[in-house]
Amino acid sequence: MMARPAKTAIFEQFAADGFTKMFGNPGTVEQGFLDVLEQREDIEYVLTLQESVAIGIADGYARALNRPGLIQLHAGVGLGNGIGMLYQAMRGHTPLLVVAGDAGVRYDAMNAQMSADLVSMAQPVTKWATRVLHPGSVLRVLRRAVKVAMTVPRGPVFVGLPMDVLDADTSEPAVPTVIPSQDVVPSAADLDRAASALQAARDPIVLIGDGVSDTGAQAELTRVAELLGAPVWGADSAEMNMDTTHPLYRGQLGHMFGASSQARVQDADVVLIVGTYVFPEVFPLLDSPFRKDVRLIHIDLDVNEIAKNFPVDIPLAANPKPTLAALAERLSDHGRLMAAELHSIRSQRNQQPPDGTLIELFTAELAKQAPADLVVFDEALTASPAVTRFLPARVPGSYHATRGGSMGVGIPGAIGIKLARPEAEVVGFTGDGGIMYTEQALWTAARLGVAAKFVVCNNHRYRLLDQNIDQYWRERGIPGHGYPSGFDLSKPEIDFAALAAAHGVPGLRVDKTDQIESAIEQMLAADGPFLIDLNTE
Q: What are the counts of helices (DSSP H) followed by strands (DSSP E) for the chain?
C-alpha cells in the first residue's frame, strides 16, 4: 500500500467501515484531520456546540441503524464534557467509536497546556480505551475498536489520536473491519432442559431487555410467550422488544426500587430471562426477589450478565433469536392464546379514553394525526406513561427510550434518529429539566434542516425527584413535608419556544386543551425542526 499521512488514511478506514457521518465539536489538536475531512465527499461533519450533544445525536443515530456511530471530541476538555453521555451509551450498549486528538506523543513529558491522560478518563465509561502511539498501527487499532464496539455486549470505545502520529506516514491498507458472527445456539441437551422446565411451569413469567431487539428476536420471543401463556415484563428495556399492546406484555419493572420488581416476580415458579440483566434498579434488593424454589433460565449473548447477581439454573450463553426459535419448536401449545382472545384483550385496552390531562389529550391527538411510520424517542420520564399509552411501541424501530440515567438525551436522540431515517416522522419527548442539558442540539437541527419534532413536557420541576424522595421518606418513617427547593424550576420561568427560536427552531406553547389539535397540525406540517412547550404541571 502506498504511504500517505495517517490523518488521510483514517478516512479511508472510516469509508471501508461504512461511516458517512462524524459527529463532533472541533478543536486545535484535531484540526489536521478535520482539514482532510473537508476534502472528502464521502463523509459529512455534523457540527454540534457541545460534546454531550455530539454523543447524544450519535447515540440515536447508532440505535436507529443498529451500527456504530462515529464521534470526534476535543482532547481532555471535550472528553470530560461528554463523560455523562458516554456513560449513558455504555449502560445502553450503544456501539460508538469515539476519537479525540492530543498535541502529540513528543510532548508527553512536558505537562503542556491541555495535556491529559485521555485513556484513563475514558476507561470507566467505555468498553475499551486506547491511544495510538505509532503511525503503522493507526488503522489496525481503529478496526479493533470497531470490532469491540460491535461485539456483544456492544458499547462505546475510545481511541486517542495524537497529532504527530497522524501527521506521519503509514502504509497500512484500509480494509473493512471483521465482526465475528455470534449466531450461537445452545446444545440440544441444554435446549431440552430449558424446554422441559418451561413446559412444567405453572406460573411462568418472562423478563426481556434490549438483547431481544439487538438480535431481532421479537417474533421468536412473542411466540414463546404465547406458547407458555406467560406475562412478559421489560427489564433494562429501551427498544421495541415486544409489541407493547400485546395482552401478555405487562409493562416495565421498576427502575428505581427493588421492591417494585419483587412484587412482579415473587410468585413465579419459572422465570425466563432474555437479553437483560436482573435487575436494572438504582436501589436493588440485596436478597433474591424470587421465591426459594424458582427455576431461572437465562438466555443472553452477554455472558457477564448471566448469573451475575443471582444463581441461574439453566444459563444459556447464546443468541436469543435462534435459541428462542429452537425452544418454540420444543414447546406444546397448552398455554397458547388464540387469535380471537388476543384481539379481544387488545381491544379492551384500546377503549380507555384520555384522562383529561393535557399530556394524555396531547398524545392521544398525536396518535390520531401522526403517520404510520412515527418514531418516538421517549425521555418524558414522569410523563412517559401517557406517551407509551397512546403511542405504544408496536414494530421494531418505532420506539427508543432513555437509558443509563443521563438526562438530556431526548432532543439529540431524536435528531440522530431523523438523520438515520430521514423518511420517518420522528418526535422526541423530553422534560423541562432534560432539555436544559442539551438545548444546543436545537441549533444543529436548524443548521442541517433536520425535520425532527420535539415536545417539552413542562411541569416546572424535577418531578421524578419528588417521587423518589416520597419513597425515601416512606422507607424511613419520615413524615412528608415540603420538597427541597432545588427540585423547583419555575423561577425564573423558561420560555422554551423563545429558546428554540434563538437556536433557529420555530415553536409554540400549549397551555389549553383547545390549542392541542392545531399545535400538532403545525408541528407535523413543518418541513424542518419544530418544538412544542407542553404544560404538564
A: 20, 20
Q: Write the pLDDT tens digit of every residue in 503-516.
A: 999 999 999 999 99
Report pLDDT for 389.
94
3 state SS of 392: coil
Q: Are 352 and 392 in contact (CB under 8 A)?
A: no
Instruction: Take residue 67 and report the three cell numbers written for it.
Output: 451500527
The reported pLDDT for the residue numbered 348 is: 58
Instruction: Using 50 as the pLDDT threshold, list the residues of the chain that sit under it.
Output: none
Q: Is 164 helix (H, G, I), strand (E, B) or coil?
A: helix
Strands 128-131 and 169-170: unpaired
Task: Tell how strand 169-170 and strand 453-458 pair up.
Answer: unpaired
Instruction: Provide the 10 A C-beta neighbour count for residue 110.
Output: 10
The alpha carbons of the chain give a radius of gyration, in whole angstroms, of 24
pLDDT of residue 356: 86
Confirm if 361 and 228 have CB atoms less than 8 A apart.
no
> Does pTM surpass 0.85?
yes
Euclidean distance between the first and final Cα of the chain, in Å? 63
- DSSP for 340-388, written as a single string: HHHHHHHHHHHTPPP-S-HHHHHHHHHHHHS-TT-EEEE--GGGHHHHH
List of residues 6+ apart from 485 with CB closer than 8 A? none
Give Cα 227 distance to the centre of its chain: 30
Query: At residue 481, what is the residue type?
Result: H
Distance CA 338, CA 43 (A): 50
